[in-house]
Amino acid sequence: MRVGILVFDGVExxxxxxxxxxxxxxxxxxxxxxxxxxxRALKEQITGALGMKFLAHEVHRELSDLDLVIVPGGAGRTxxxxxxxxxxxxxxxxxxxxxxxxxxxxxxxxxxxxxxxRKATTHQSALDELGAIADVVEARVVEDGLxxxxxxxxxxxxxxxxxxxxxxxxELAGEVEERIEYQRxx
Length: 186
Hints:
Blueprint lengths: L1 E5 L6 H17 L6 E6 L3 E3 L5 E3 L2 E2 L8 E4 L5 H4 L3 H11 L4 E4 L2 H8 L6 E2 L6 H5 L3 E2 L4 E4 L2 E4 L4 H14 L1 H10 L7
Helix pairs in contact: 1-6, 1-7, 3-4, 6-7
């Protein structure tokens, strides 16, 4: 499984890094696991919302080589939602393959047309905005068809564990949860 986590200027760092840590830790524990996790961006160097610098593993707009796309949120999402060509790529991808978001990344999925008529969640500060394009569920992780959304910031870790459980089984998710010393909220 080839996973691409989109990063863009203004991305909320933990949105991207939390899910990356969980998925990459699974690969570190089990090197033969069929899992590759990469940051994908439209340019090589990205500056996050709090100033963290990212060097993307892959720099290009194409998504078709991926099996799963994860879209984090952050203040930079306002620029991403103005890129009609990229939103079309997200829509095309998300109607055929699994796509996920963390925090206000759900609003990017919504702008791409992927949340109409679906249940979804986001950061608590954006629930009203999300309600205009989706059926809001206040939960850490919400899955509806090919689309999975996670709540605010730290829910990135929950999303990673959810994806591990779904695609690789509860044993691996539990092993990673223990290794990173994380307890999922009730």
